[in-house]
Write a structure and sequence with these properties.
Keywords: Membrane, Signal, Transmembrane, Transmembrane helix. This protein is mainly α and about 170 residues long. The protein has one domain. The protein has four helices and three strands. The chain has a three-stranded antiparallel β-sheet, covered by helices on one side. Helix 2 packs antiparallel against helix 3 and helix 3 packs antiparallel against helix 4. It is elongated.
Length: about 170
């Protein structure tokens, strides 16, 4: 009985050591003042960009390409978020600032408002794309997949939406 318990104990320790040899990456997505920050975690450790580039390049070229796309989209989203913030501040200052005596509003008010809204919408689109591509890169690294995940396929219907029809 003692031998089987020791055998089970040592085999579980061996499997836990094997599991630690192959790193399992995960994402930590946090919102900061202007935009989101995507951190790649290996256990409790936050990986730097250099460490992530070496890990992704060691896996497959597709994984490294997905990581590069994610980083570039995150940079574009940051630039658009800064532009949206500056545009919102400029619009607010322009609207609130005292002007000469005039009975009609300026012609620049609406274009400034529309441009600040467009900056915010486009920043959100790039944030979502960067987040999805980063998840795909982590899945590709963790699972060794090269085909795209199922949830990115368009027009996929596995089951009928309504299985029972109601006749009138």
């Amino acid at each position: 009985m003692k031998k089987t318990v020791l055998l089970i104990l040592f085999s579980s320790m061996y499997w836990s050591l094997l599991a630690q040899e192959t790193p399992f990456l995960r994402l930590d997505i946090r919102n900061n003042f202007l935009n989101q920050k995507i951190d790649f975690l290996d256990g409790p450790k936050v990986l730097s960009k250099v460490e992530m580039q070496t890990l992704m390049s060691q896996a497959t070229p597709e994984t490294a390409d997905l990581y590069r796309k994610s980083v570039s989209k995150q940079k574009i989203a940051n630039i658009l978020a800064i532009g949206g913030f500056a545009s919102a501040i400029g619009t607010t200052v322009y609207i609130i600032a005292p002007r000469q005596q005039s009975s009609h509003a300026s012609n620049l008010t609406w274009p400034l408002i529309i441009s600040s809204i467009a900056f915010e919408i486009s920043s959100g689109i790039f944030n979502r794309n960067a987040r999805n591509i980063a998840r795909e890169a982590v899945d590709s690294y963790n699972l060794g997949r090269t085909e795209p995940p199922v949830h990115f396929e368009d027009n996929r219907i596995d089951m009928p939406i309504l299985s029972y029809s109601i006749r009138f």
